[in-house]
Fold this sequence. Notes:
The protein is an alpha/beta fold. It is built from eleven helices and 16 strands.
Amino acid sequence: MSSLPRQPxxxxxxxxxxxxxxxxxxxxxxxxxxxxxxxxxxxxxCGEFISGLRPGLLDDLGIADLFHDAHHHxxxxxxxxxxxxxxxxxxxxxxxxISRYTLDTRLLERFTQLGGTFIPNRWKDHDxxxxxxxxxxxxxxxxxxxxxxxxxxxxxxxxxxxxxxxLEMHLGDGGYVGASAVENGATNLCGLFPIAAFKQxxxxxxxxxxxxxxxxxxxxxxxxxxxxxxxRCGTTHxxxxxxxxxxxxxxxxxxxxxxxxxxxxxxxxALESAWLTADPITHYLAEELTWPQTVSEVRKVILKQHSSxxxxxxxxxxxxxxxxxxxxxxxxxxxxxxxxxxVTPLLWGEALRAKPL
Length: 357
Ligand SMILES: Cc1cc2nc3c(=O)[nH]c(=O)nc-3n(C[C@H](O)[C@H](O)[C@H](O)COP(=O)(O)OP(=O)(O)OC[C@H]3O[C@@H](n4cnc5c(N)ncnc54)[C@H](O)[C@@H]3O)c2cc1C
């Protein structure tokens, strides 16, 4: 048995999973100190489209009210590179659109109102493992094979986007872009582009990256839109699938496993993983579990819940990102339009026989 006093619990990383866990623990009367390398508010690279959310999860976490003005997505439309809409679908379970700029700030406010301690602008390296939960998101280190990054993710918010649907997916030649309504009438444009286009100089910002992957029709549509100041951001840190595990290191959210962005499931999984981590931590504090048992329980419950959809999405991702579906959009559209119940769950990264929660 450890000799450390068991409270407070330290959380490193104040993204969705870290803040959501911090809120649940504080609501249970557990003291939390949260380290975050940035301050709030700030924009993050994210499609800001929340799909695959378990009904009741936001209530369980005590944060449902923070989504009061989120956009409710009912429909989605898929486009070929030449701008043809080849599939229009009512989304099986309506999804939420809310900017991270707003959501992260509201979560932080809730956490501090509950008495939590927030330490911003602190990049915390792991000096110890016990009593520390790492919600540090996407890894900033290289892959095991040291392969240079292949993709760059870019985001910006625009106003006055004339969309016929809540969520648009544009398949390009070697990249893709989602256009998704968020709160206050803004639209999030977020895409994955080949980094080679930036290295070769054919792209230098979001607009020219659209040209680089053959999405000129979308570029034309956004030409007269206003870009929200400060909303442009980018990242090259992607390591899809399960992340390397370190003995006795408790990780959750993207720090444990990452689903390809096209699914719009990453945020729902980050929130669910926070909920699944709260019970083992509570049992640890009650001295019913040791730290190694706590870490192993957290991993077991999260991986059981999410691994099948991560695997499914990782299988499908190369078809979308390498332009295979964009070149074969007619047969792909035929499949989508004629077998919607069988095929569309795959678009959201769900395994065919996903276990009900
Ligand atoms: C291009 C792209 C598009 C996406 N689109 C969507 C989408 O439309 N819908 C969706 O649901 N998901 C999407 N995602 C995924 C989603 O953004 C993530 O799954 C989600 O943010 C994971 O939450 P998290 O809390 O694990 O990590 P994050 O939200 O990334 O938070 C991690 C936090 O930890 C902090 N941090 C890291 N290391 C340290 C340290 N050592 N010390 C202190 N602080 C630290 C970081 O500053 C950050 O604030 C997208 C991702 C990408 C890359």
